[in-house]
Amino acid sequence: MDGIVALWKERGMTSHDCVFQIRKLFKTKRVGHTGTLDPNVSGVLPICIGKATKIAEYMTNAGKTYEGEVTIGLSTTTEDADGETVEVKKVDKTFSRKEILDVFERLTGTIEQTPPMFSAVKVNGKRLYEYARQGLEVERPKRTVTIYELELLDDREWFSGEFVSIPFRVVCSKGTYIRTLAVMIGQELGYPAHMSKLTRTASGGFSKTDCVTLSDLSKLAEKNQLETILFPLEQGVSHLPKWNISDKVAEKVKNGAILEKPIDWPENDRKVAVFYKNRLMAIYQTHPTKQLYIKPVKVLTE
């Protein structure tokens, strides 16, 4: 079977756990997820099966949407609610709605983040969480990410208390650490902070309403109906520009040919999904050295 499972990952499971379970249910090794979700985070985790694994990287690059909560007044080792307390500074002021919205505005757009020590980023061939578990702190490379939208999910005009919890929704690029974003919100407000809740509500073109749970999949497997919940490959590239081709061009694309760039080709060298008779055939981009031509980066015909 080839296609995409829109999985709702429940808290307590790793993304790898989910892949392992789906390999068993679908009886295939060709399974891959499209962006790790921490064990304590629930939400949308699209999983590619069979030929769909070839487009997993393009789904990973698509934007993601989260609903979370930042708690002001306390920071932790992991930047979320699971870590040990690092600093407590009880809030001794009242934040206005405008003050919080101004912070959200400053953090919208292109920003730099330093990955948390408890993360899977590699430094000198070793993952940061391995250093952290040994009590070591190493220099971490900063990364540039994009916050497309940062919305306050609370209609209060004033926020006060010893610890202030602020719910939010964020639409962001690949590689964004929401834990770190929560810490940055606290820094902007002048207090330690951590991410106290998080759910991923959309990823890779899929939302919660598209999803099934592992329990749902087990029931479908018992009835031999797993194929009924698979989304086609085409759904996984719905965020990419689309180019429909003719019979003549389709034969060339099938063979991975370099082609003359069409007049209406998108600017800025974006990846483009090539369709023939409503089926995804390949992913093309502008040729890196011959700007009047396009070349395949992935051919999906077999």
Automatic annotation (TrEMBL):
<dbReference type="InterPro" id="IPR032819">
    <property type="entry name" value="TruB_C"/>
</dbReference>
<comment type="function">
    <text>Responsible for synthesis of pseudouridine from uracil-55 in the psi GC loop of transfer RNAs.</text>
</comment>
<feature type="domain" description="Pseudouridine synthase II N-terminal">
    <location>
        <begin position="23"/>
        <end position="178"/>
    </location>
</feature>
<dbReference type="GO" id="GO:0160148">
    <property type="term" value="F:tRNA pseudouridine(55) synthase activity"/>
</dbReference>
<dbReference type="GO" id="GO:0003723">
    <property type="term" value="F:RNA binding"/>
</dbReference>
<dbReference type="InterPro" id="IPR020103">
    <property type="entry name" value="PsdUridine_synth_cat_dom_sf"/>
</dbReference>
<dbReference type="InterPro" id="IPR002501">
    <property type="entry name" value="PsdUridine_synth_N"/>
</dbReference>
<dbReference type="InterPro" id="IPR014780">
    <property type="entry name" value="tRNA_psdUridine_synth_TruB"/>
</dbReference>
<comment type="similarity">
    <text>Belongs to the pseudouridine synthase TruB family. Type 1 subfamily.</text>
</comment>
<feature type="active site" description="Nucleophile">
    <location>
        <position position="38"/>
    </location>
</feature>
<keyword id="KW-0819">tRNA processing</keyword>
<protein>
    <recommendedName>
        <fullName>tRNA pseudouridine synthase B</fullName>
        <ecNumber>5.4.99.25</ecNumber>
    </recommendedName>
</protein>
<dbReference type="Pfam" id="PF16198">
    <property type="entry name" value="TruB_C_2"/>
</dbReference>
<dbReference type="GO" id="GO:1990481">
    <property type="term" value="P:mRNA pseudouridine synthesis"/>
</dbReference>
<dbReference type="Pfam" id="PF01509">
    <property type="entry name" value="TruB_N"/>
</dbReference>
<feature type="domain" description="tRNA pseudouridylate synthase B C-terminal">
    <location>
        <begin position="179"/>
        <end position="237"/>
    </location>
</feature>
<dbReference type="GO" id="GO:0031119">
    <property type="term" value="P:tRNA pseudouridine synthesis"/>
</dbReference>
<keyword id="KW-0413">Isomerase</keyword>
